[in-house]
Amino acid sequence: MPRRAIYPGSFDPLTNGHLSIIHRALRLVDELVVAVVGNPKKAPLFPVDERKALIRGAIEASAPELASRVEIDHFEGLLVDYRAKKGIPTILRGLRAVSDFEYEFQMANMNRKLDAEFDTIFMMTGEDYYFISSQLVREVAALGGDVRGLVPPNVFAALAARFPLLLRHK
Ligand code: PNS
Prior knowledge:
With 170 residues, the protein is of the alpha/beta class. It has a single domain (4-164), classed as HUPs (Rossmann fold, 3-Layer(aba) Sandwich). The protein is built from 6 helices and 5 strands. The N and C termini lie far apart (45 Å). 32% of the residues are buried. 4'-phosphopantetheine (PNS) binds next to β1 and α4.
Protein backbone atom coordinates (compact mmCIF):
# COMPACT_ATOMS: atom_id res chain seq x y z
CA MET A 1 0.00 0.00 0.00
CA PRO A 2 1.52 3.36 -0.96
CA ARG A 3 1.72 5.85 1.88
CA ARG A 4 -0.45 8.81 0.94
CA ALA A 5 -1.34 12.14 2.50
CA ILE A 6 -3.42 15.16 1.62
CA TYR A 7 -1.87 18.63 1.87
CA PRO A 8 -4.86 21.01 1.89
CA GLY A 9 -4.81 24.78 1.77
CA SER A 10 -5.82 27.94 0.02
CA PHE A 11 -2.48 28.28 -1.81
CA ASP A 12 -3.45 31.80 -2.89
CA PRO A 13 -0.74 31.83 -4.04
CA LEU A 14 1.73 28.99 -3.47
CA THR A 15 4.80 30.26 -1.60
CA ASN A 16 8.30 28.88 -1.27
CA GLY A 17 7.28 27.76 2.23
CA HIS A 18 4.53 25.58 0.76
CA LEU A 19 6.87 24.26 -1.93
CA SER A 20 9.48 23.30 0.66
CA ILE A 21 6.82 21.37 2.63
CA ILE A 22 5.78 19.54 -0.57
CA HIS A 23 9.39 18.54 -1.32
CA ARG A 24 10.05 17.39 2.23
CA ALA A 25 6.74 15.54 2.54
CA LEU A 26 7.66 13.44 -0.47
CA ARG A 27 10.51 11.97 1.58
CA LEU A 28 7.89 10.67 4.03
CA VAL A 29 5.05 9.61 1.75
CA ASP A 30 4.88 7.94 -1.62
CA GLU A 31 2.07 10.10 -2.97
CA LEU A 32 0.87 13.53 -1.97
CA VAL A 33 -2.45 15.10 -2.92
CA VAL A 34 -2.17 18.87 -2.85
CA ALA A 35 -5.80 19.90 -2.36
CA VAL A 36 -6.71 23.49 -3.15
CA VAL A 37 -9.79 24.69 -1.34
CA GLY A 38 -12.32 25.93 -3.88
CA ASN A 39 -14.30 28.02 -1.40
CA PRO A 40 -11.75 29.89 0.73
CA LYS A 41 -13.01 32.17 3.48
CA LYS A 42 -12.10 35.29 1.49
CA ALA A 43 -12.43 35.99 -2.23
CA PRO A 44 -9.22 34.58 -3.71
CA LEU A 45 -6.73 36.54 -5.77
CA PHE A 46 -6.21 33.60 -8.14
CA PRO A 47 -9.04 31.37 -9.34
CA VAL A 48 -8.76 27.74 -8.34
CA ASP A 49 -7.59 26.52 -11.77
CA GLU A 50 -4.78 29.07 -11.83
CA ARG A 51 -3.73 28.17 -8.28
CA LYS A 52 -3.58 24.51 -9.34
CA ALA A 53 -1.61 25.30 -12.49
CA LEU A 54 0.87 27.39 -10.50
CA ILE A 55 1.44 24.54 -8.04
CA ARG A 56 1.96 22.06 -10.88
CA GLY A 57 4.31 24.43 -12.68
CA ALA A 58 6.34 25.16 -9.54
CA ILE A 59 6.83 21.46 -8.76
CA GLU A 60 7.78 20.65 -12.34
CA ALA A 61 10.31 23.47 -12.40
CA SER A 62 11.85 22.81 -8.98
CA ALA A 63 11.80 19.01 -8.72
CA PRO A 64 10.54 17.38 -11.94
CA GLU A 65 11.44 13.93 -10.58
CA LEU A 66 8.78 14.35 -7.87
CA ALA A 67 5.97 15.52 -10.13
CA SER A 68 4.59 12.05 -10.89
CA ARG A 69 4.03 11.46 -7.16
CA VAL A 70 1.93 14.59 -6.70
CA GLU A 71 -1.73 14.96 -7.56
CA ILE A 72 -3.06 18.50 -7.66
CA ASP A 73 -6.76 18.54 -6.89
CA HIS A 74 -9.37 20.88 -5.48
CA PHE A 75 -12.29 20.45 -3.17
CA GLU A 76 -15.40 22.29 -2.03
CA GLY A 77 -17.07 21.83 1.31
CA LEU A 78 -15.67 20.04 4.31
CA LEU A 79 -12.16 18.63 4.35
CA VAL A 80 -13.42 15.57 6.27
CA ASP A 81 -15.78 14.77 3.39
CA TYR A 82 -13.03 15.25 0.82
CA ARG A 83 -10.59 13.03 2.69
CA ALA A 84 -13.26 10.32 3.07
CA LYS A 85 -13.96 10.47 -0.67
CA LYS A 86 -10.24 10.10 -1.40
CA GLY A 87 -9.86 7.31 1.20
CA ILE A 88 -6.79 9.00 2.68
CA PRO A 89 -6.84 9.48 6.47
CA THR A 90 -3.68 11.55 6.85
CA ILE A 91 -3.70 15.30 6.45
CA LEU A 92 -0.47 17.27 6.30
CA ARG A 93 -0.16 20.88 7.42
CA GLY A 94 2.83 23.17 7.75
CA LEU A 95 3.42 24.90 11.06
CA ARG A 96 5.33 28.15 11.00
CA ALA A 97 5.23 29.64 14.43
CA VAL A 98 3.45 29.57 17.75
CA SER A 99 0.87 31.90 16.22
CA ASP A 100 -0.23 29.11 13.85
CA PHE A 101 -0.61 26.63 16.63
CA GLU A 102 -3.97 27.58 18.08
CA TYR A 103 -5.73 27.68 14.71
CA GLU A 104 -4.17 24.40 13.63
CA PHE A 105 -4.92 22.76 16.98
CA GLN A 106 -8.57 23.78 16.73
CA MET A 107 -8.89 22.59 13.14
CA ALA A 108 -7.16 19.27 13.79
CA ASN A 109 -9.39 18.53 16.76
CA MET A 110 -12.60 19.71 15.09
CA ASN A 111 -11.80 17.53 12.10
CA ARG A 112 -11.15 14.52 14.32
CA LYS A 113 -14.39 15.20 16.16
CA LEU A 114 -16.23 15.16 12.82
CA ASP A 115 -14.36 12.10 11.59
CA ALA A 116 -12.56 9.75 13.98
CA GLU A 117 -10.43 8.39 11.13
CA PHE A 118 -8.95 11.81 10.52
CA ASP A 119 -5.43 12.59 11.65
CA THR A 120 -3.26 15.62 11.01
CA ILE A 121 0.51 15.55 10.89
CA PHE A 122 2.50 18.77 11.03
CA MET A 123 5.80 19.67 9.46
CA MET A 124 7.75 22.59 10.81
CA THR A 125 8.38 25.17 8.13
CA GLY A 126 12.05 25.75 7.34
CA GLU A 127 13.71 28.69 9.11
CA ASP A 128 13.95 30.60 5.83
CA TYR A 129 10.19 30.51 5.39
CA TYR A 130 8.57 30.94 8.79
CA PHE A 131 7.64 34.58 8.12
CA ILE A 132 6.12 33.95 4.67
CA SER A 133 2.37 33.70 4.28
CA SER A 134 0.23 33.90 1.16
CA GLN A 135 -1.66 36.78 2.73
CA LEU A 136 1.50 38.86 3.26
CA VAL A 137 2.78 37.97 -0.20
CA ARG A 138 -0.49 39.24 -1.71
CA GLU A 139 -0.37 42.43 0.31
CA VAL A 140 3.30 43.20 -0.38
CA ALA A 141 2.98 42.32 -4.07
CA ALA A 142 -0.13 44.49 -4.51
CA LEU A 143 1.87 47.44 -3.18
CA GLY A 144 4.81 46.69 -5.45
CA GLY A 145 7.18 45.16 -2.86
CA ASP A 146 9.81 42.70 -3.99
CA VAL A 147 8.47 39.21 -3.34
CA ARG A 148 11.08 37.42 -5.46
CA GLY A 149 12.63 34.74 -3.28
CA LEU A 150 9.39 34.32 -1.34
CA VAL A 151 7.48 32.61 -4.15
CA PRO A 152 8.49 30.34 -7.04
CA PRO A 153 9.38 32.17 -10.29
CA ASN A 154 6.13 31.18 -12.04
CA VAL A 155 4.12 32.57 -9.12
CA PHE A 156 6.15 35.80 -9.26
CA ALA A 157 5.30 36.08 -12.97
CA ALA A 158 1.59 35.54 -12.23
CA LEU A 159 1.69 38.18 -9.49
CA ALA A 160 3.51 40.60 -11.81
CA ALA A 161 0.80 40.09 -14.43
CA ARG A 162 -1.73 41.33 -11.87
CA PHE A 163 0.42 43.94 -10.18
CA PRO A 164 2.58 45.63 -12.88
CA LEU A 165 4.46 47.60 -10.20
CA LEU A 166 6.29 44.32 -9.51
CA LEU A 167 7.90 44.44 -12.95
CA ARG A 168 10.43 46.97 -11.66
CA HIS A 169 12.01 44.10 -9.68
CA LYS A 170 12.44 41.83 -12.70
O1 PNS B 1 -4.19 27.60 3.65
P1 PNS B 1 -5.30 27.76 4.65
O2 PNS B 1 -6.25 28.85 4.21
O3 PNS B 1 -4.79 27.97 6.06
O4 PNS B 1 -6.11 26.37 4.63
C1 PNS B 1 -7.24 26.18 5.44
C2 PNS B 1 -8.05 24.94 5.02
C3 PNS B 1 -8.37 24.98 3.55
C4 PNS B 1 -7.24 23.68 5.30
C5 PNS B 1 -9.34 24.93 5.87
O5 PNS B 1 -9.95 26.19 5.80
C6 PNS B 1 -10.33 23.87 5.42
O6 PNS B 1 -10.14 22.69 5.70
N1 PNS B 1 -11.38 24.30 4.71
C7 PNS B 1 -12.42 23.41 4.22
C8 PNS B 1 -13.72 23.61 5.01
C9 PNS B 1 -13.65 22.87 6.32
O7 PNS B 1 -13.53 21.65 6.39
N2 PNS B 1 -13.75 23.65 7.42
C10 PNS B 1 -13.68 23.12 8.77
C11 PNS B 1 -12.26 23.05 9.28
S1 PNS B 1 -12.22 22.45 10.94
